[in-house]
Amino acid sequence: MQRLAVIFALVLCGAARGQDAEKLAPYYPTPLVIVEKMLDLGGLKAGEKMFDLGSGDGRIVIMAAQKYHADATGVEMADDLYRQSMQKIRSLGLEKTARIIHGDIFKQDYSSADLLTVYLLPVSNDKVRPLLEKQLKKGTRIVSHDFPFRDWTAEKEITIEDDGEGRSHTLYLYRR
Fold first, then answer.
1. d(CA 176, CA 171)
2. Which of 51, 78, 124, 128 could form an SS bridge with 120, CB 3.0 to 4.6 Å?
3. CA-based angle 73:76:79, to the nearest 5?
4. What share of the chain is helix, strand, coil (3-state, %, to 5)?
5. Confidence of residue 61 (pLDDT cuts 50, 70, 90)
């Protein structure tokens, strides 16, 4: 029931902000405690290449570069979120290890990824799944926040009962 409420809230949030129906998910920032748990679950190590699809304000990319010393790339279509995240990356001096691609997640190459993170709606996971199945190398880890990939079997699933803001989250780890 709570997951349905989250989906409904995400859809309403997107509609309220005037986002078009083609967007894969409205902007709904992941709490930092969950960002860290996503990167931990994905086993991110220094020097690995990670991608965050629909990177929003860049918080996953920034933590991946700053705390885990990964080569982190986000993909974000919204102009304001792209600018905001790049400004934050520059202000932190992370330009060598963190970047945001201003563009469409379907037009990127993820074949070098060691870890991929997503917080997309279920229908969006369905849309991006064929691209990931085609591009990702054997062993690539994928961590999905709240919504599983249909027809994939999670290697691990964890639920965080309270993120400090009064809501639970489920994380799914997949390996190609």
1. 16
2. 124
3. 130
4. 35, 20, 45
5. very high
Domain boundaries defined on the chain: 28-175
Tell me which residue of 15, 41, 45, 39 sits closest to 27, measured CA to CA: 15
- Residue 34: C-alpha distances to residues 117, 139, 173 (Å): 12, 23, 14
In sequence order, which residues have a C-beta less than 8 Å from that of residue 64 and are 6 or more positions away? 39, 44, 50, 52, 70, 72, 98
The CA distance from 102 to 99, in Å, is 10
Residue 22 has pLDDT above 70, yes or no: no
3-class SS of residue 117 = strand
Largest distance between two CA atoms of the chain:
43
User: Counting beta carbons within 10 angstroms of the beta carbon of residue 142, is it exposed (0 to 12), middle (13 to 18) or buried (19 or more)?
Assistant: buried
φ and ψ at residue 55, rounded to 5 degrees: -80, -5
Between 150 and 9, where is the model more confident?
A: 150
The yes-or-no verdict on residue 119 having pLDDT over 90 is: yes
Is it true that domain 28-175 has CATH number 3.30.360.10? no
The mean per-residue pLDDT over the stretch 141-152 comes to 96
Residue 136 has pLDDT above 50, yes or no: yes
